[in-house]
Specification:
Structural class: alpha+beta
Radius of gyration: 20 Å
Number of helices: 8
Number of strands: 9
Number of domains: 2
Strand content: 15-25%
Distance between the termini: 14 Å
Largest sheet: 5 strands, mixed
Strand order of the largest sheet: 6-8-7-5-9
């Protein structure tokens, strides 16, 4: 079992950044945005009493709505560091990222999910925080690691249930494994992210460097019931 100092890390404890990725929109996402904008404009033009003004209003409204969702999604950042995987929105005033130490990660859960839906949790459930993917993300990389309530420096202090999770594990590690979340990161190209994660795990003596090739060669469907080993409870 990892020691507490190696489990409850802060962003500054993650060490040197080795690689970073963002779930940026691809050509299909931009095509959807353009198509929706044109459709909104046409709907405004041909609506009862419509004309140029309503057409522009409809197109602008659709563009602003989808554009804002795209912007928020692209601010999410996946950072592979020497000691941990750091996930979260950047920049974000007062925000703190999730810090998942490599010592809490189960390498056997590393998976490429394509197409990506919403794996790992039902909407509104705590595990939903483990999904770091944008609205338009069609591919993702999943890995099981420290529970979201414990990986977040603020939540582990302010949320009583977070400390309860850890206390139960410390009292009886045999019955209560280290609390875990299935983290899923939206990316356009999973290769560099998978290779960076495996390289960091291998440097820590936690994985075989050949794991990256095996994972990339066998992507799975991205749904909640996709095959593949889930992180330990």
């Amino acid at each position: 079992m990892p020691d507490l100092p190696t489990i409850l890390l802060r962003p500054e404890d993650a060490g040197r950044e080795l690689y970073r990725a963002r779930p940026t929109p691809g050509p299909l996402a931009w095509l959807v945005l353009a198509g929706a904008t044109v459709t909104g404009g046409l709907a405004g033009w041909f609506a009862a009493g419509g004309g140029p003004v309503t057409a522009v209003t409809g197109a602008t409204g659709i563009a602003l709505l989808l554009g804002s969702l795209y912007l928020v999604g692209s601010l999410d950042c996946h950072r592979v560091c020497e000691n941990a995987l750091v996930l979260g929105l950047t920049p974000w005033p007062g925000g703190q990222p999730y810090v998942i130490p490599w010592t809490t990660v189960d390498p056997s859960t590393l998976t490429v999910r394509r197409p990506l839906t919403r794996p790992g949790a039902s909407p509104g459930q705590p595990g939903e925080r483990g999904i770091r993917a944008a609205l338009y993300s069609r591919c993702g990389v999943s890995i099981g690691g420290l529970h979201a309530d414990l990986a977040h420096p603020r939540r582990r202090v302010t949320v009583p249930a977070a400390r309860d999770l850890l206390d139960r594990h410390l009292e009886d590690p045999t019955r209560h494994g280290l609390p875990a979340t299935l983290w899923t990161m939206g990316v356009r190209d999973p290769g560099p992210l998978v290779e960076a994660i495996v390289a960091a795990l291998a440097a820590a003596g936690l994985a075989d460097p050949a794991l990256a090739g095996r994972v990339l060669a066998h992507p799975v469907a991205g749904g909640k019931d996709a095959p593949g080993k889930e992180p330990p409870k």
